[in-house]
Amino acid sequence: MPALTRKSTAERREEIATAVLSIIGRTGLTSLTMSNLAAEIGVTSGALFRHFETRDDILREAVRHAVARIDRTFPDESLPPLDRLFTLAKNRIDLLGPEPGLAWLLRSEQAYLTMPDDAVDELRDVARRSRRFLLKAIRDGAAEGSIRSDIPPDVLLVPVIGTIHALIGMPGASRHAGGGRAGTPPRVLAALRRMITNPEREDS
Questions:
Q1: What pairs with residue 147 in β-bridges?
Q2: Could you give the angle at the alpha carbon of 94 between the alpha carbons of 92 and 95, nearest 5°?
Q3: Distance separating alpha carbons of residues 121 and 112, to the nearest angstrom
Q4: CA distance 151 to 100
Q5: Distance CA 66, CA 62 (A)
Q6: Of 180 and 16, more confident
Q7: For residue 7, pLDDT beyond 80
Q8: pLDDT tens digits for 95-107?
């Protein structure tokens, strides 16, 4: 019988952070008790505090874990503006659609009201960086002629963000943004691309 391998502190902390997001995604923050969290990963409640001093420390780690994963959805800024924008959109839908706990952290006002202040700062920062990334892609595209310039970039940003959020929240719509419900995400993203593309270059 193979010997059991004890998980390292880093592995256990990541496991706890992942379990936090899983519980939040399934049943909401109010169900995140230490007993539920311990049961989720198969340890005692006391074992959680061998890796974290307080409940807030656990929440901070969950946010750090979430932000690190969200950061990996930012594409290479050297991509052409339209590709840059829609690669980020697809990456976010692929990540957040199947993981409502992650989506809740990024999109819910309740997260900003209930998480520790420094964790909220991290969430606000990634939201700001996401908005800046999309806005810059729109501005760059308008400047080079691939994105329509007859609508101000900050106005065009609204339907872009709204579409991404709607697809993330659509049940069954984000199984890798290439499947989902009747291929909904790719069809909607293709329609959005047509909407924001410079009409004179729609065939490019």
A1: 197
A2: 65
A3: 9
A4: 33
A5: 6
A6: 16
A7: no
A8: 999 999 999 998 8
Whole-angstrom distance, CA of residue 23 vs CA of residue 29: 8
pLDDT of residue 37: 96
CA distance 126 to 49: 28
Q: Which residues, other chains included, contact 159 with Cβ-Cβ below 8 Å and sequence gap of 6+?
A: 192, 195, 196
Distance CA 27, CA 25 (A): 6
Q: What pLDDT score does 200 carry?
A: 86
Q: If you average pLDDT over residues 140-155, what whole number do you get?
A: 97
| Residue ranges of domains in the chain | 9-64, 74-201
The CATH code for residues 9-64 is: 1.10.10.60
Residue 108: helix, strand or coil by DSSP? coil
Q: Are 16 and 48 in contact (CB under 8 A)?
A: yes
- pLDDT at 9 (0 to 100): 82
Burial class (CB in 10 A: 0-12, 13-18, 19+), 127: middle
| Fold designation for 74-201 | Tetracycline Repressor; domain 2 (1.10.357)
Look up residue 160 and give its two tokens. 């872009």
Q: What is the pTM of this model?
A: 0.86
